[in-house]
Amino acid sequence: MNVKFRVLSAGVLFFIGQGAMAQKAKKDTTATKEIEEVVVVAYGKQKKNAVVGSNLQIKSEKLAERPISDVSQALDGAGPGIQVSASSGQPGEGLSVRIRGISSYSYSNTPLYVLDGAIYNGPLSALNPSDIESINVLKDAAATSLYGSSAANGVVLLTTKKGKRGRDRIDFSATTGISARAVPEYDRVDAAQYYPLAWEALRNGRIAQGVDVANAYATNNLISLLKSNVFNVPDNQLVVNGVLNPNAQLKYNDFDWAKPLIGTGIRNEYNLGISGGNDKTIYRTSLGYTKEDGYLKTTDFERFTLRVSIDSQVKSWLKIGANLSGAAITRNNGVDGVSSPTSYVNPYRWTRNMGPIYSPYMHDAVTGRRVIDPETGLEMFDPGDRRGTDAAAGRNVIAETLWNRNFTRDYNVNSVVYAEVAIDPYLKFTTNVAYGYQNTFRKTYTNKIIGDAAGLGSAERYTNFYQTLNWNQKLSYTRKFGNHALDAFFAHENYRYSFDYLYAYKTGQTVDNNNEMVNFVTPKSINGYYNLYTKESWFGNLSYGYKDRYHLQGSIRWDASSRFAKDVRWHAFWSVGGNWVISNESFLKGNSVVNYLKLMASYGQVGNDALNGYYPYQTLYSIGYPNVTEGGILFNQLSDPKLTWESNNQTDVSLEFGLLKNRITGSAGWYKRYTKDMLFKDPVPVSAGVPGDGYARNVGDMQNIGWEFQLSADIIKNQNFKWNINVNASTYKNTLKRLTPGQTEIINGTKRIIEGRSIYDYWMRQWYGVDPKDGAPLFLADAQYVNPNNLASDVRMINGTAVTTNHNKAKYDWSGSAIPDWYGGFGSSFKYKNWDLNVLFTYQIGGKIYDSNYAGLMTAYPQGGALSTDILNRWTTPGQITDVPAMNTATYNSAAQASTRWLVSASYIQLRNATFGYTFNKESLKDLGIDNLRLYVSGENLWYKSARKGLEPGGGNFNGTVAPRYTPARIVSLGLNVSF
């Protein structure tokens, strides 16, 4: 960028990147000088021209006014190659992040997070987004190889704000807003529609016995099936010949199970920052408070944060600094819905799937009024003894959600202390020590009235202590020789992570309204263990530049991990890369069209040891009571002593450009990631008698090849009005190249893992449709069951195609992929005088989702569960063309089976964020002692469009499956920023 500044005799201050420099001069002058942008890279900073790796930067302006509680939420749509999924809508939860596809099948694909130069394993929710200066996403080996064995899934660098030289500054911000459910429910039938549909299923299941017999059977057994008649007519007169009695009137109408649990929440956030400095020392301290109530009652998130940073040039040859932070977080958690999709206490499942004829409350059979508990004076919840089998008989998810408790408290402390010694003008020694501490205390209570602990009540306590210690020492050399620039360093690093766990469980609640452990009389379990993970590393980097046109870089890192046996513990990871800044060539100097052009290429290898366990190379035994009353040991884990690093070989080629005075900027890139010796959880037969679902081995290779594009354009740019548009797009293809020797395939739910295909390719029964003659569900028939000369009774020929009504005879075939064809984001920013508007959309084109949530609403035999309004399009008359089979107790099981019937397009578009604000003129604020004042309104998850109403954008994960879960919230906030 070009910056014009006046140089005073006393000196002048100008900014480069995130730091500041003071430069003295002997007299006043006016000059224009090119100040090149500085980019945060692995273990340091680098001029933009010298960067040879793929490095996406997100600046603090992109985070400052968004109502987000977790910094990972800022990554959605921020740039190419980044794919995100909302892990939960629980307040304070962030996003799951994937960078350039999938590198591991069985184990983690989460990127490495680095906070102020040190590996960060704490929760991202413990970081206040207001404290973040920049986020840098490192995507290729040239950018990540200095993190070696931790970098296979990419690296996210988080840099916190520091003080700036000059007068002291006070920044205050406040937001208040509301949160509500962003993803609406699927449309479902009401009570008046439900009874005839259930009647129809009963009738069609007996139609072979004759219409009269079938009708009578359905009429006489309808209420015995559903166990509830909410209308004011006798049971055997409720539905006559498939039609609801026109005289039927509802006795009560409170069948909405979501209403008592799902509503709106309040979100408030306050941040205070004080910063400043002089020629020798800069400082910044900040306080933050966030309180967010979830749209699901009983859920919330509260966070207090404190951060202090100081950097001081105590001697001409010595610079020291510290960055200290703490966070205290409390949460009241809801059931996540992902790990327990079918649980009776999953509120998202049962507020959706409860039939529209059941109330959560008890009602008087005569008057229809809610029953009042004479002891408490409160309305009594329905215990579920008058519900069908698909309506959570004997349970009440509302009562259990309101009465049960799941509370978590986190204390987090992080500190980074450094010293930098200038040995001579070119040689520098730096050492950093980072310490992290996290204490997580969780307590749960399960009520004794209804549910899993009925009659007893139960309490659990979990206490986890996490500690990390990261110490590195770096010797660096930087020098220019005429047109040559050399930058090199060599370093050593120790990393230690420990985890201490304690658990207790008791039952038998003595006194009501007391959930502490002392109030429970029967100990059921107490357990604890300690895990330790260590890593030692030696690494170095050499960078060379010539005339600021050509740059070469090489990196290498030797890592040793305690997760592997001693003879395979060490491994080297490396990269080489280079760039050509074409715009600095003489033939492009002064070119009015091409202002910036840089070609980059790199190749290297990074690794992964992110296994679930800490000692996977050892055979383990569990200690306890395997014989009920007698202590002993039990075989617990198989092992492979030769288990070693998963390596990821990466090739990257990209082009960056700036055109028309940099009003148009962008990049295009191609990459190839080849995972070798993939860490794979090898299945073990149940007959082997080994607990768990497999053991870790190096058994496979996998490849991702992709393209990335990014474009930004200033459409209008003048003194009063500015309009910018930006878009990014990514695509990749995933292929499993090698599987376990001797193993040809692995069937995993809707996927078939086989060489030559993606691990996210669907392998499913092929749905054909509905037979117009009788409404039977049809699948393409597997050839082995088709004999044209002697067709079985469940195999038919329709228009020359062999089909079957029996799902067990259905043909399996490849059925698309969960991986989208394209994904990314686009946005626009407008500024007119003091007004501004910024919008960000995210999108996905192509790919498929297996919508099991919808499948659960499309049963052809309702037994108390809810039904989608799409069921109204069912087959009813011979010759009718429809894709919804007849309601029928005889065929419903086949119709409901997993097949391509439930696959739907994963394409979506979402308005991720919009911010509209007004910034007051600085001149009008001077008399008030205010430097800056801004008001704005901002919203997250404001709108989306997917394949059908109720389907969450992206499905909530990367593998194309859905679950009844806590979906993300829509948050709209009003904000104030003021600086003094």
From TrEMBL:
<dbReference type="InterPro" id="IPR039426">
    <property type="entry name" value="TonB-dep_rcpt-like"/>
</dbReference>
<feature type="domain" description="TonB-dependent receptor plug">
    <location>
        <begin position="51"/>
        <end position="155"/>
    </location>
</feature>
<dbReference type="InterPro" id="IPR036942">
    <property type="entry name" value="Beta-barrel_TonB_sf"/>
</dbReference>
<comment type="similarity">
    <text>Belongs to the TonB-dependent receptor family.</text>
</comment>
<keyword id="KW-1134">Transmembrane beta strand</keyword>
<dbReference type="Pfam" id="PF07715">
    <property type="entry name" value="Plug"/>
</dbReference>
<dbReference type="InterPro" id="IPR023997">
    <property type="entry name" value="TonB-dep_OMP_SusC/RagA_CS"/>
</dbReference>
<dbReference type="InterPro" id="IPR012910">
    <property type="entry name" value="Plug_dom"/>
</dbReference>
<protein>
    <submittedName>
        <fullName>SusC/RagA family TonB-linked outer membrane protein</fullName>
    </submittedName>
</protein>
<keyword id="KW-0813">Transport</keyword>
<dbReference type="InterPro" id="IPR037066">
    <property type="entry name" value="Plug_dom_sf"/>
</dbReference>
<dbReference type="InterPro" id="IPR023996">
    <property type="entry name" value="TonB-dep_OMP_SusC/RagA"/>
</dbReference>
<feature type="signal peptide">
    <location>
        <begin position="1"/>
        <end position="22"/>
    </location>
</feature>
<keyword id="KW-0732">Signal</keyword>
<keyword id="KW-0472">Membrane</keyword>
<dbReference type="GO" id="GO:0009279">
    <property type="term" value="C:cell outer membrane"/>
</dbReference>
<keyword id="KW-0998">Cell outer membrane</keyword>
<keyword id="KW-0812">Transmembrane</keyword>
